[in-house]
Amino acid sequence: MTVAASVPETLRPPATRAGTATHCPYCGLQCAMTVTGTDAASAGIEARQFPTNKGGLCQKGWTAAEVLRVPGRLTAPLVRVDGELVPTTWDAALDAVATTLRRVRAEHGADAVGIFGAGGLTNEKSYMLGKFARVALGTSNIDYNGRFCMSSAAAAGNKSFGIDRGLPFPLADIGSARAVLVLGGNVAETMPPFVQHLRTAADAGGLIVADPRRTATVDRAVSAGGVHLQLSPGTDLALALGLVHLAVVEGYADRDYIDSRTEGFDEFWTAAAQWWPERTERVTGVPVARLRETVRLLAQSRDAGTGAYVLTARGAEQHASGTDTVSAVIGLSLVLGLCGRHGTGYGCITGQGNGQGGREHGQKADQLPGYRKITDPAAREHISALWGIEESALPGAGLSAYELLDALGTPGGPRALMVHGSNIAVSAPRAGHVVDRLASLEMLVVTDFVLSETAAMADVVLPTLQWAEEEGTMTSLEGRILRRRRAVDAPEGARGELDILADLAVRLGQPADRFPRDARTVFEELRRASRGGIADYSGVTYERLDAGEALHWPVPSETHGGTPRLFLDRFETPTGRARFVTVDQVGPAEPTDADFPLLATTGRVLTHYQSGAQTRRVPSLSEAAGPMFVQVHPDTAGRAGLEDGDDADVVSRRGTVVARVRCDASMRLDTVFLPFHFADAARANLVTNPALDPTSRMPEFKVCAVRIAAHLVGATDGETA
Q1: What CA–CA distance (Å, rounded) separates 504 from 522?
Q2: Whole-prediction pTM value?
Q3: pLDDT of 390-445, one tens digit each?
Q4: Residue 84 neighbours by CB under 8 Å, 6+ apart
Q5: How far apart are CA 71 and CA 368, in angstroms?
Q6: In this structure, are residues 369 and 125 in contact, taking their beta carbons and an 8 Å threshold?
C-alpha cells in the first residue's frame, strides 16, 4: 500500500503532489487518492491522507484506474437501426434525440418526457440535469436512483431536525467513541476504510450491529465483546421502539435534554411504551439481554463522556416503513440526549459517491437547488428568476423514481426517457417489470461510458466521460464539498454531460448561454441558486476548495468557515427543538406464507458496487466476488433439497433469481441473502418488492417473501406472470 506522507492535506495543495489529487469514484466516503499518469493506459492509484480514509483504500478504490481502460469503453454515439446499435456521429445522434423529444412533447405534453439521474453525478451535473428537465423540456418527471438509497433517512431527518445531512458531524468524531450502534449497515464490506472509525468502540466492546446476518461488521463487533442484534428482516422499527422503552423505564433517558431541546415526547412515548422487552424479543427475535446491553452501553459511554453514536444505513431504511423506522431510531437518539452535542449523535451512512450532493441540487422530483421544496412559492420565485423564466413556467413535483419507471409507456406516462449514470435494468425493484416498461418507450436515451444492461436496451447511447476525465465537485457523507479534478485525458469521441445537455438544449430552442458547458461556470450558478437554501453552497468556491479548506455546508458566505457540526445551538425547526415523530411497527409489506415461507434480504459484497456495471468489468474484483449466490442456513437449504454449491431458484411473486447456494450456519433459518450486483437471470431485483414508503417513496428492497428450490435447467427466468 502506498500512502502519502503525514503532512495534513489542508496544508499541502494538490499542485505539490506527483499526479492529480482527487477522490474515489465509488461510495460516499469519498476516500482521497492521487491519480498518476496522463491517460487511461498509464493511470495508477495512490492513496492520500484524508480524514475519512486515513491514507487507506478498499479494493474497489485501489483498482479504480482499471475502470478507465475497461474493454468496451464507448467512444462514439450509438443509434438503433433495424434492431441493432450502430455507431454514428454526434450531430446525427443529438439531432435524432432532439427531434423525437420535440415530437413527443408536441403530441403528448411536456410530462411525456422523463429523466432518470444518479447519485454518482457531480454537483454540477446534478444541478444542470434538474435545470435541463424543468427549463429545456418543461417536464416535472425527473427523479434519480438516490431515491432508492437515502430517501427514507432524508425524510425522517427533515421531520425531526428540519434538515437532511447524512452525518451532521465529521466522520472522524466517531473515531473516539466507545459505543456505536449501527442499524442495517455492513461497512466492513461496503466501505472498508470506515471501519477505522469504529476501532475505539469495537476494542472497548461497545460496537453494536443490528443485522439479520452475521456480516464482516458483526464479526468485528462480537470478536471484541460487542453485540449482534440478529433481528428478523423488516422488524427494525420494533427494535428501535423496544430500545426506547428500555431507555426510559430503566432510567437511561436524559430528561433535562428532552425537556429543553425536544418536543413531542409524550405522544411518541405512547407508542414506545407498548414495546416492552418481551414483546420486542417476540417480534424481532433479539433476546432481551442483548436489548438491555445495547441501551446500557450507549448510556454508560454517554455518561462517561467517552462518546455514543447511533447510525442507520440501507438495511434499516429500504422498507415500505423506512421513514418511520428512522424516525424511531432518531427518537432513541433523542431520548438518550445524543443529538446536537459534541461527542454524541445520530447519523445516516450515505452510500453513493454523491448521494448527499446529488439530492440537494434539483434531481429529485420534489426539489429545487439548495434543497428547496418545489412547492415553496419563495423557492420557485428565486430559482425561476435565476433561470430567466416565468415562475408559472416552472413545473411542479413529478413522479418519484419507481413510480416514474412504472408509468413508462402507459397512458399518461412518459413515452421517452433519458437515463444518466444509472443502470435501472439491474438496480430497480421488480426489475423484470421495469425492463418491460423500458421496452415500451418510443425512445430510450442512455448516457454512459460502457454498454450497461440499460444502455444495451437504448435507442440512442451517448458516450460520456469518466470520473478522472472531468472537473467538478462532490459532497461526501459528512456534508463536505470536495473537488473532483481532471487527471487523465479523455478518449477521443467521448463528451461530458454538461456538453451533451448544452447541445440538446440549443436544439430544443434554448439560448446557448443558458446551459454553460464549463463545470466552474456551472458551479458559480449553483452557488447563486443555493444561496439562502437549507444546503447553502454560496460561500464555496473552487479556489477555497483547491486551497484545501474543509467546507461542510451550509457555507453562507466566502468568509464563513463552513458547518462541520450541525445543531449544537439549535435544530432547524421553527422552535429550534428536535421533534419526536410518533410511529409504530407495521412489519413487512409482504409477509411469508405457505407458498413463500422465507424472507429474502438484499445487500452488497466487498468487491462489487451498486449494479456492478463498473466492477463486473474489473477482472480482479469480479473473480474475488465469484458468481451470484444465495446465502442460506444449511438446514433451510436441506429442507429444499439443496446443498452448498448447488444452483437454486429463488422465487417470489414477481420473478425468479438463479443463484449458487452458499450455506452459512450463522444465518437465520427464516432468511436468505441475495447480493444485488449481478445481471440477467442473476438479478436479485427480479424478486424484490416495489411496495413504497408513503413519505419517502422508497421501495422495500430489504425484505420480500420467497421460496428456494433446485434450479431447473432451461426454465424461464425473470418476471413471473
Answers
A1: 16
A2: 0.95
A3: 999 999 999 999 999 999 999 999 999 999 999 999 999 999 999 999 999 999 99
A4: none
A5: 38
A6: no
